[in-house]
Write a structure and sequence with these properties.
With 218 residues, this protein is mainly alpha-helical. Helix content is 87%, strand content 0%. The chain is built from 8 helices and no strands.
């Protein structure tokens, strides 16, 4: 579940970033020039750059997390050989902290360490499952694809609608894409759906306003 949630998190972050950066670039450039080709090229360039940036960033970040997990496994494996009694005390303390009587906690620790010593220590100390590590590749692919997909919404709206309605269409597309991202994030995290949707919508609208003002300024 942790591996899946990490991939989902990367996808949601990528989608949100793709939507906001593309629409931000589109509106900042649109405020500075009326040349539709320039606006579309700027948005497309940002879409590609954003997707690759999110993917590479996720790969680097999750790789560091995976490396830390593997280091923890190696460390605890060595400690089981050199400091088994200390490991026993750590596992017993885990259960006493949760209300188990000391004698019972020691008996639990002894039984668990006799059957699955490394898996027990990792679960107690790090909330890790032995042999299951977060995947940098899965996170990178999820983030890259989601960023590209999210950024496509405002860009396609800009392309398919007539020039007179293109910016309104891009705003509506941003609202829809932001709402969908908020909905999915709330569902996957079991959070507040309405709050997540409205939060994403307002962030998208504020992003448009800020970038449009920057475009006007320059």
């Amino acid at each position: 579940m942790e591996e899946r949630l990490n991939t989902i998190r990367a996808g949601i972050l990528g989608s949100n970033d793709g939507i906001l950066t593309v629409v931000g670039v589109v509106f900042s450039v649109a405020a500075a020039t009326s040349n539709r080709l320039v606006i579309v090229l700027a948005g497309l360039s940002d879409l590609l750059a954003c997707a690759l940036s999110m993917g590479s960033g996720e790969f680097a970040a999750v790789s560091s997390q995976a490396d830390s997990e593997k280091v923890a496994v190696a460390l605890e494996k060595a400690r089981l050989k050199t400091a088994f009694d200390a490991q026993m005390e750590d596992v017993a303390a885990f259960y006493t902290d949760r209300g188990v009587q000391p004698d019972t906690a020691k008996a639990i620790a002894a039984e668990l360490l006799a059957e699955k010593p490394l898996a027990t220590v990792l679960s107690v100390k790090y909330d890790m499952t032995l042999g299951h590590y977060v995947s940098p590749i899965a996170a990178a692919v999820s983030s890259t694809f989601s960023a590209a997909l999210g950024g496509v919404f405002p860009l396609v709206a800009l392309l398919i609608f007539p020039a007179h309605y293109q910016y309104l269409a891009a705003i509506v597309a941003t609202v829809v894409a932001s709402a969908l991202t908020g909905l999915l994030s709330a569902i996957f995290s079991q959070g507040m759906v309405k709050r997540a949707i409205w939060r994403n919508i307002w962030v998208g609208l504020v992003t448009i306003a800020i970038h449009y003002c920057i475009g006007l300024l320059f």
